[in-house]
DNA sequence: CAGTGGATATCGTGT
DNA sequence: ACACGATGTCCACTG
């Protein structure tokens, strides 16, 4: 990663044509070949940029300037930087990043639903989250008001896969005499029609989760179908 | 603008929950208060970030680490950076950026239409682009197949303003005996109904420009109303 | 209505 | 079905 602070002007010719007048800016050149030009505002969004794959050609310009031409390898788009003065220039080896782990909506929904398990219905009690089975953990195992065991599968977007997964869990759980009978609840922020049809056909209830509501603002906005 | 290269781990708690394991990264702190954490790839997109308005609190952590807590002033979202080692740290005054000037679609459309002026009709010939008048340049001045002068106003989105502008040009141009009579053509990627009505009422033809078609893929896809 | 800024969402693509 | 990357677009907000 190379960090350059320089007085530069920039011209972009590609999907549109754009120009940046001469001013001091950050030029961020990453190991993936990308180049982005940042001002001291606009949060993380650069003023202009070039995505990989691209190549940088550096050559002298007029009046002692230096011209960096960044060319996109496929589209031919160009970013032309005219450098008047370099105020800082440093390079750093960062290596490959382990990357972002999103505990994301699914995990968060699970946590919230476990905490507010009665949103599934009155008298519901949590048995445990991530209830282990031979084919993987069930997101939530709980009991309804009648004491019947309920297995809950949580997804951000409920699709057929999720229904199939829950079906497998239910089949397995229903072999356990201490749990049997086990009902299924398919919970997601958004449930695709096909998934809903399949779930209903298998006697699995569908619950649409309202994330904000679950976060505790208003618990009542959860709708049960 | 402060540039920090540091071994850090990051936890984000907000709209979702995310974690970044300890690794060397760029921490970009802008004058607007924003903080973004970049790996050496993914083009201009940071691994994680916090938008303004936010505040940064720096305090010692365990084992000699330093913990930077970035808190969003309104939502309370937090970005927690645990810094193990600082490899680079520099600050730079950039001042306010003059900002991006998008010559954008309009200039590009003008260029393309000038190049393919016959897309307005058979026998059309270009007089010149940016034809100067006392009240500003006319985007394109050309002649149709009959030798009649035609003034073209080009916009990305055709609104009433553009029609008014073209009307003023036409009024002026029609005073010139060497050009008179001058017809008007209002060309845009998208023309608002009101603008179209006004233009038609004034005897100005409307042309919807197909950007991709003009770019030379298929010249025929331009539609004349 | 025009101009600006922000998107951890959503979409599309590829596997 | 899923993961990843890109949005140079789109929308919502402001004045």
TrEMBL record, chains A, B:
Q: What is its EC number?
A: 3.1.-.-
Question: Endonuclease NucS C-terminal domain: from which residue to which, for each copy?
Answer: 105-225
In its UniProt record, a GO molecular function of this protein is:
DNA binding
Major localization class: cytoplasm
**Swiss-Prot/TrEMBL keywords:** Cytoplasm, DNA-binding, Endonuclease, Hydrolase, Nuclease
Q: Which InterPro entries match?
A: Endonuclease_NucS (IPR002793), NucS_C (IPR048301), NucS_N (IPR048302), NucS_N_sf (IPR049173), tRNA_endonuc-like_dom_sf (IPR011856)
Q: Where in the cell is it found?
A: Cytoplasm
Which ranges carry the Endonuclease NucS N-terminal PH-like domain? 2-98
Query: What Gene3D superfamilies does this protein map onto?
Result: 2.70.180.20, 3.40.1350.10
> What GO cellular component entries does it have?
cytoplasm
Which family, according to the similarity comment?
Answer: Belongs to the NucS endonuclease family.
What this chain does, per the record? Cleaves both 3' and 5' ssDNA extremities of branched DNA structures.
Q: What is this protein called?
A: Endonuclease NucS
Lineage at the top is: Bacteria, Bacillati, Actinomycetota, Actinomycetes, Streptosporangiales
Corresponding gene? nucS
